[in-house]
Amino acid sequence: MFAQETKKRALFIEPEYMVGKVVPNYLNSFPSTHLQHGLALNIGSLKTDTNSSWAKYFNYPQTGISLFYSNIGNDRIFGNQFSAMTFVAFNLFNKSQKPLYFKLSIGAAYFTTHYDSITNPKNVNVGSPFKWAFQAGVYKTISEKPGMNLKLGLLFSHASNGHTQIPNFGLNSALLSISAQFYDKKISNYQLTNNQLSVRPKLKSRDIGISYGLGFHEYGDTGLPVGGPKKLVHSTSIYTAKTVNHHFRWGVGATYRYYDSYHYQITSRNLTDYASNPTKYASNVVLFSNAELLMGHVSIYTELGINIYKPFYQQYEKDFPIGTHYRGYIKFKSHFKKLLSTRLGMNLYLLNTNKLPKHNFFIGPYIKANSGQADFSELSFG
Fold first, then answer.
1. pTM of the model
2. pLDDT, mean over the chain
3. Class of domain 201-381 (CATH, top level)
């Protein structure tokens, strides 16, 4: 009977209510907001198949899609947010009763109100109607009944257009959540646990990967200039990685990146310091380390890199000098922006990654940042 149950597709529906506040991300003249209210409908699957190797490795996480609505707390300036996100919720301590989950969600958002130099000049947080949507939080199961669980959550919500349209300060919120998860009452154990993970031998394989990414953005700082041309960013990466136990991959590599926007600035403004070789000065070289959670045909990818060559950043600092307020802190932050390169994204693989195929192909959306400030949005394949 248990074997039959574990092969059954177990779906759940989880309505969720959230309340909280927008967290200001700049100190001067941030628009006032009331309480933020949100509603979400989470539709997903319980991992009850004990034959799924990736589900077992990650302690049988819950996955699905989340449809999210929120009133930000200032109708005139920020309006309302509608989002569609994919999510994965990890059982942190491998518990079968009243588990604690860490939930990650990523997708797209639409805002009913955004920046306009005439009608809405104070909304520098939402520069365009379409944005990236990201949420991360912890959820504690506080009540369990046959076919129903009650959860309390604390989460961080972020929306940004990935520097594709300025201004782009982004919108951050801290939210409290209560949700009720409904599933088939016939499922006797909705949250399986993995008791064999610690005794499994560590299987490893080595990989070599090549990828190309095509991104786009506007040249500028977070808040200006407004209305600049959108330009492409070309990225080519090569890396070597080690896959551990078929489900976790980490590695090191290098990226050559070329910014059309830098080339455009050099040639259109006749910047003499860079005019001798615009292609060279519009280039960027990054050394990076990456980590990837492999879940069958889908993965979550993170990357931390160091800019070892980015000469045009000196011109960027001239074009957008550090303000006089909080100069010490901002200068410290600027050094990190100049040094650190980060990427976050998801990959969709042609073949099941957990079977360690000799060759595989992927495509996925990414957001690339200078430290914590968005640089461009990208579609990558390799």
1. 0.86
2. 88
3. mainly beta
